[in-house]
Write a structure and sequence with these properties.
Elements (H helix, E strand, L loop, with lengths): L5 H8 L7 H15 L1 H4 L4 H16 L5 H4 L3 H81 L1
Helix pairs in contact: 1-4, 2-4
Length: 154
Amino acid sequence: MAITTRVDALRVLGLPVGSTENDIKIAYKELSKKYHPDVMGDEYTEVFAGINEAYNFLINNPATSRKVLGNDEKAMVRYENRRSNRDKVKRYEFKERQRKREKEAELIKASKEARRRQEEEKRKKREAEKEAEMQIKAMEMAIVISKMLGEKNE
């Protein structure tokens, strides 16, 4: 589970959007004690990992928007939605650039393959021409030899 927004992290810890750092620490301590694998067993390791991830996200990304929005939960949600929409647009633009690069790479690969095939055809044609020239020379020599042998026999 990848936590990308503050709202998601707060939901994992079961807190409202306007929670303070102290609320976050208290909720983290309670949930980590409750769902620790040593207490609950190995089936809760994913839940425990999610709690740790949410807490680390909240500690490493303090809420700067709270200064502007106060404790207005609706405004905070709107802010997070706008932020996540911007992130979606950035991801979409990144994927489009990546698709464009992949398409260009495919075109370059196809053109190189076409050039390679053309060179191969030219090489085969040259080899065929050389073979034909050698056969013509062999026939000419055979004619010359047969004329020489024909003159000696007469």
